[in-house]
Design brief:
Blueprint: H1 22-62, E1 67-74, E2 81-89, E3 92-100, H2 107-122, E4 141-146, E5 151-160, H3 181-198, H4 220-240, H5 246-265, H6 269-272, E6 277-280, E7 289-291, E8 297-300, E9 307-310, H7 311-323, H8 336-353, H9 361-365, H10 367-388, H11 394-413, H12 415-424
């Protein structure tokens, strides 16, 4: 430059960065939040319209239940998407349950579930919704749907609608204070009816979805025995995917303990073969029921994981789901008094129905093992989810897993009490 003179910048072609006050920055933040909310609202409207159009097409083209009037999503659950719908045919308004199954749902497991529900309903199970036929005689409809990553075939079904309210979930569950007596009584009746109506069901080699999202079909007792080896494979996958978070650290810290619990919980094969076998729900938790205003169960749902297995496993898993507390000061504690009431009510309901025996001596002998299998099995759900869906919140799954570990610890500390209770049932 020339001595004593400065070169002027051509500022009309440049962007000027102006200083901002805290007030201006806050204003920009609020404007950004409003823009995000508007975009989210627009996405939700688009999502709702997509589902309405999809459901209308399937209902009106694949089923003979008339014209679609209204669609209302039923929230809850981790896997499938469920709606309550109204249709009109011949001037009559009808209510149905419409289900969109998870991505990758196999046709074989869906057919098994639908066959099971129909068999159970025809043989005395009064709590289940039953799939209705399409116009071509199937119990489901298949349709290609754009997932954003290409077209994927999804499975859909329409069921009769069961009225009721969602009073509980898997948390809070039936371990909470204020539980009505009728809730335990109707829960025991529900399980007794299910087992009594399906003891003669022929699975034809089919089964519901495996908790571990593999081919499945193994008895749950076998899954428990094999779980430590599976955990080793999971740890290898975590490392290969460079996963290192609070969940992984807790996984490592508790691996040996879970392995030991699996060994204690596994029932010898020769004794497991003596157990009473029937179709088991395998997801018998408080959020899979609807209730009336007095707390009585009106309907039982989500039979995706059902399979023919030992009813003792179904009972043990159900007792963990229903009665293991999630409250901060009692987390993992099993309400053993309520477990006893449930099992006694179950035995009486089975006797009243008169098709199958109440708990046998061999089943009572292994009640402790079955109760310990419950939190181990659901621990498997959590670890499998972290493998299958690496974007899950590690803190959320740490919270779940800590609950399962605390439940195992409580059961171990009260083994003698549980074994004593089993002899008195």
């Amino acid at each position: 430059m020339t001595q004593g003179k400065y070169v002027e910048m051509q500022i009309d072609l440049m962007k000027r960065f102006t200083p901002n006050t805290p007030e201006k920055l806050r204003e920009l933040e609020l404007e950004s939040e409003q823009a995000v909310e508007s975009l989210q609202a627009a996405c939700e409207v688009a999502r709702e319209q997509f589902y309405y159009a999809l459901i209308r097409e399937i209902v009106e083209e694949r089923y003979d239940i008339g014209k679609l009037l209204e669609v209302h999503q039923i929230f809850g659950g981790y896997v499938n998407v469920t709606f309550g719908i109204y249709t009109e045919k011949g001037g009559e308004k009808q209510t149905w349950l419409f289900r969109k199954y998870r991505e990758g749902k196999s046709t074989d497991s869906l057919i098994f579930e639908h066959r099971l529900l129909r068999h159970a309903s025809e043989h005395g199970f009064t709590y289940c919704a039953v799939p209705i036929d399409t116009v071509d005689g199937k119990t489901y409809a298949a349709k290609m749907v754009d997932t954003g990553k290409g077209d994927q075939e999804f499975l859909f079904a329409v069921f009769n609608y069961i009225d009721g309210v969602k009073t509980y979930d898997w948390m809070p569950n039936w371990a909470e204070e204020g539980l009505a007596d009728v809730t335990i009584a109707s829960g025991a009746r529900n399980m007794a009816e299910l087992h009594s109506s399906t003891y003669d069901f022929d699975p034809q080699g089919q089964h519901g979805d495996s908790l571990f999202l593999d081919e499945g079909g193994e008895p749950c007792n076998t899954l428990i025995a094999q779980y430590p080896a599976r955990l080793k494979d999971y740890r290898k996958t975590y490392a290969e995917n460079n996963l290192d978070n609070v969940f992984i650290k807790y996984f490592d810290a508790t691996y040996d303990y879970v392995k030991d619990c699996c060994e204690k919980a596994t029932i010898p094969d020769e004794d497991y073969a003596k157990m009473f076998m029937c179709c088991c729900h395998n997801d018998f938790h408080a959020g899979n029921f609807k209730y009336d205003l007095n707390g009585a169960i009106t309907g039982s749902f989500d039979y995706d994981s059902a399979m023919v297995d030992s009813r003792l496993f179904d009972l043990g898993l159900g007792m963990h789901y229903l009665f293991a507390s999630w409250a901060p000061t009692t987390n993992g504690i099993l309400r053993l008094d309520r477990v006893e009431r449930f099992i006694r009510a179950y035995n009486q309901e089975v006797l009243d129905i008169g098709k199958i025996p109440p708990l046998t001596d061999i089943e009572k002998k292994y009640l402790y093992e079955a109760l310990l299998q419950g939190p181990i099995y659901v621990h498997g759900w959590g670890t499998t989810d972290v493998i299958t869906y690496p974007d899950v919140d590690p803190y959320e799954y740490l919270y779940y897993t800590q609950h399962f570990i605390q439940a195992m610890e409580w059961l171990e500390d009260h083994e003698a009490e549980i074994r004593d209770l089993a002899t008195k049932l």
